[in-house]
Design goal:
It contains eleven helices and twelve strands. It is of the alpha/beta class and 278 residues long. It binds NADP nicotinamide-adenine-dinucleotide phosphate. NADP nicotinamide-adenine-dinucleotide phosphate (NAP) is lined by residues 109, 133-138, 156-158, 161, 192-195, 197, 203, 218-220, 241, 244-245, 248.
């Protein structure tokens, strides 16, 4: 961002809480690198006020909004049109004000996750993937993995939620108590629970992991979770959660600006911020 003028385009994120979001860091780094007269800000919007925020987007001419908790489902309901992924998931993380004044909803989390795996040289077509957790992030990841040809098994504390997530990948489930054996036999293990946030805890016994497996953690605070260090020590290929966060934001930048996103500059800015916070 150079200096803000009357011509500056505004984008942002709606969520609650949102003050510690890394999205402004990621997006403003991208706009700076692309020399665009754009700025990206955080809007704290309480639960229940999603539709008002979506309508304000049109009134104020906001170019795009990222959407985080607790608004992802309500924003899907408030958008004028949805991408296939967003319709299937009933959830959006991206709103775009289009040329016809309509608001389009997309979900870039799943594709962002696949791109983070690709950065680590991991292709999931035909791979056996065990996905831990069955919340919003797990559902987006399950859907993307299934579409990319992975054989997905979901394990979560609540069996009905695991079934719902697994169905998005045409996959199966294993009981939470049996996750270690399933993870040991997998090519790729993904943690989509919050366990490990703040640096505490692992979502499965580390001795379940083995050399040559890919271990992806969606948690990115801290960047190196206990699960990632344990997996690395056992010779696994590790993928941290910042890759997914950067790529889902990069896809938003591309959707809104129609320019290739400067992924490396975005990641570097986020890493600098995370280092400041830890
Ligand atoms: P969510 O909708 O609340 O779902 C969390 C899932 O984890 C649920 O299945 C929940 O099970 C399970 N879980 C929670 N605590 C657990 C525990 N102590 N032991 C076992 N399972 C537990 O959350 P979400 O939006 O999917 O996010 C999940 C994680 O992914 C968060 O840490 C979030 O920060 C991260 N995330 C990262 C990115 C990224 O770009 N890297 C994007 C989205 C989310 P119950 O239903 O039984 O509670």
């Amino acid at each position: 961002m150079s200096s803000i003028s009357g011509a500056t385009r505004v984008a942002g994120v709606i969520g609650d809480p949102v003050r510690h979001s890394l999205s402004p860091i990621l997006h403003n780094a991208a706009y700076r690198e692309l020399a665009l007269d754009w700025v990206y800000v955080a809007f704290e919007v309480p639960d229940g006020a999603t539709r008002g925020a979506v309508d304000a987007m049109r009134t104020l001419g906001l170019a795009g909004l990222s959407v985080t908790m607790p608004h992802k489902s309500a924003a899907a309901a408030a958008a004028d049109r949805l991408s296939d992924d967003a319709r299937t998931l009933g959830s959006v993380n991206t709103l775009t004000l289009e040329a016809d004044d309509m608001i389009a909803g997309d979900s870039t989390d799943g594709e962002g996750f696949l791109r983070s795996l690709r950065d680590a040289g991991c292709s999931v077509a035909g791979a056996r993937v065990v996905l831990l957790g069955a919340g919003g992030a797990a559902r987006a990841v399950a859907h993307a993995l299934g579409r990319a040809g992975a054989n997905v098994t979901v394990s979560a504390r609540r069996a009905p939620a695991a079934v719902t997530a697994a169905e998005l990948a045409r996959g199966g489930t294993v009981p939470w108590d049996e996750r270690a054996a399933a993870a040991g036999a997998a090519d790729v293990v993904v943690n989509a629970t919050p366990v490990g946030m703040g640096g505490d805890g692992v979502p499965l016994p580390l001795d379940a992991l083995r050399h040559g497996q890919v271990l992806a953690d969606l948690v990115y605070h801290p960047l190196e979770t206990p699960l990632l260090s344990g997996a690395r020590a056992r010779g696994a290929i590790v993928v941290d959660g910042l890759g997914m966060l950067v790529h889902q934001a990069a896809l938003q930048v591309e959707r809104w600006t129609a320019k290739p996103a400067p992924v490396e500059a975005m990641r570097a800015a986020a890493e600098r911020q995370l280092r400041r916070e830890t």
